[in-house]
Amino acid sequence: MADILVYSDLLTNAKELAYAGKGFAAALGMGISAAALGPNADADAAELGAYGADRVFVGKDPALEGLQTDVVAEALAQIAKEAGAEYVIIGSTRRGKELAGRLAQKLGAAAVTDAGSVVVEGSDLVASHFSYGGATVAKEKVNTPIKVFAVMPKTFEVGDVVAGAGTVVTPSLSLTPSAVKLVETKPKEGAAVNLDAADRLVCIGRGLAKKEDLPMVESLCAALGAEMGCTKSLCDWEWLSENRLVGLSGTKAKPTLYLSCGISGQVQHTVGIGTSKIIVAINKDDKAPIFAFADYGLVGDIYAVVPALTEALKKK
Amino acid sequence: MKIIVPVKTNPDLQMIRIKNREPILEAVPYKVGDLDKNSVEAALQLQAAVGDTQVVALTIAEGNRKIKDTMKEVLAMGADEAYILSDDALTAADQAGKALALAKAIEKIGGADLIVFAEGSTDNYSGQMGPRVAELLALPEIGYAKKLTVADGKLTAERGMGDLIEVLESSLPAVVTVTSEINEPRIPTLMNIMKAGKKPTTEWTLGDVGLDAAAVAPQKAVLSNLAEEQQRKNVMIEGSAEEQCAALIDALIKDGVLEA
Ligand SMILES: Cc1cc2nc3c(=O)[nH]c(=O)nc-3n(C[C@H](O)[C@H](O)[C@H](O)COP(=O)(O)OP(=O)(O)OC[C@H]3O[C@@H](n4cnc5c(N)ncnc54)[C@H](O)[C@@H]3O)c2cc1C
Ligand SMILES: Nc1ncnc2c1ncn2[C@@H]1O[C@H](COP(=O)(O)O)[C@@H](O)[C@H]1O
Q1: Domain-by-domain residue ranges, chain A?
Q2: Less CB within 10 Å around the terminal CB: N or C of chain B?
Q3: How far apart are CA B157 and CA B167, in angstroms?
Q4: pTM for the predicted model, two decimal places
Q5: For A135, which residue in chain B has the nearest alpha carbon?
Q6: Which of A236-245, B69-78, B107-116, B243-252 has the lowest mean pLDDT?
Q7: Is B129's C-beta closer than 6 angstroms to any atom of ligand 2?
Q8: How many Å apart are CA A196 and CA A187, to the nearest integer?
Q9: CATH code 3.40.50.1220 for A195-315
């Protein structure tokens, strides 16, 4: 029996994949396996079993510490063969996306990365990803014997857990240490943020004239109880950390309320906001493309509208 | 040192119109990918820092009929030489086929000390090519570099990973992919644009790198490629800033996304 093998360097994401993978496996008449790699593998394995994996392959080889791409790719390639995997579904996190190419190459597989949906069609899994910079969505079917999909975190939801399920398998891995050495890690500036979980999101773009004006936006966020996100330039200029980036190369946010300030609405940004319940845009240019994506559009200068909105919210 | 920069040219994304959800590509000109300019710039900055370094641009035309003209921009930025791989079979190829063609071309060029990819192509953004080519050439690879230095035959790269910045080190030869944070690509001067025409450009077909159409045949089928439908209210709220804000708050309360 062929298998679906799932893996992510992020446990929360791996659980999503295990849960969704179980559904796919049932539909396709396959088994569902998960891989747990690195120093936390034992603890992760128990959870992955509970979330749906029939078998969990645990890899604790010291070479896996630090989860360097070349070693993880080699480990997963070996596990995929031992498991008899036809599909390898990994999380399209930064590490996962990098991993996908190297793993697919090892397995002689074609791959779809950054998949935003995976569905069963007939006897296949087909995956969709943004194309032309986000202007379109391409739906692809993979024809190699082994198929690799890297799926964006939060694409799948998780359901009920089954405590204790899942057999732990210790694969016979033969690994050599990575050619790449981790010299040091340093904390990024600014506090940790998790835009994924934000219920309200205020995003700021190049309409902001200077970094010193950020407190104006922070006040609005506070009044609204929102997280702050941004477009790419603000990260490139290091005004805000890349954890706050929303769009193709950042978070695909799912807030109830998304409000943009001084953002033009280029597709690489708007692909990250499409699933918001309500979209509000403030822009001084009445022809800004963002208005086509918005439920409510306010033409105006953010330096006038943002403070006015903050005040109005406070008085409410 | 020799640095090879694989560069992708793509349809100008700003010029793609959508009609009945279909992208209209006729008459859309090709340009060097925005992110690929970051990788060219990264190579040029290493060249300046290390000295005695040759920067070679390598591209698969992917249907760009004016590929030689488009690649002049890379030469005008400062690359010393360009290699162009054109073949109808490569236009249809997916990442596996293109990575194989790039790897074969890199071998034929005589290899490199460093191969600098962008983290993803500007249009397709798959991010597969760098890691695939690294695997094909059995080289170490570091993804998402936002800072690169080469010293004492070693490569050091910084990259953002979640809440941390990782500093990684690798021996050379190596493959890296870079993000747009790494630099602000230069705009070629008029003089360098004039000089670009005289720089060596070599054109190859698949056969020249020892491959045939079967070796790069697509292994994925695109079932559809359409724009997503957006269902939005598109209500414009007019008035003074205060009036706009009051009306917005009312609307958001009615929609149930703001408490009264
Ligand atoms: C491969 C790739 C991936 C990318 N990924 C992302 C991504 O994940 N996320 C992302 O955001 N971008 C991404 N980008 C960049 C993206 O293409 C755009 O450059 C970016 O989103 C534009 O940001 P912006 O809207 O802030 O700036 P601009 O496009 O410059 O728009 C600024 C807007 O502000 C308005 N404005 C100016 N001043 C004021 C004022 N005082 N009051 C009100 N309005 C004002 C202007 O009218 C304008 O519409 C990516 C690009 C590439 C090539
Ligand atoms: N047609 C091509 N010719 C040369 N290099 C390419 C080509 N396509 C992709 N690349 C390289 O691979 C990177 C990642 O592309 P992708 O895997 O499509 O996201 C690009 O930024 C380029 O450096």
Answers
A1: 3-169, 195-315
A2: C
A3: 6
A4: 0.92
A5: B227
A6: A236-245
A7: yes
A8: 20
A9: yes
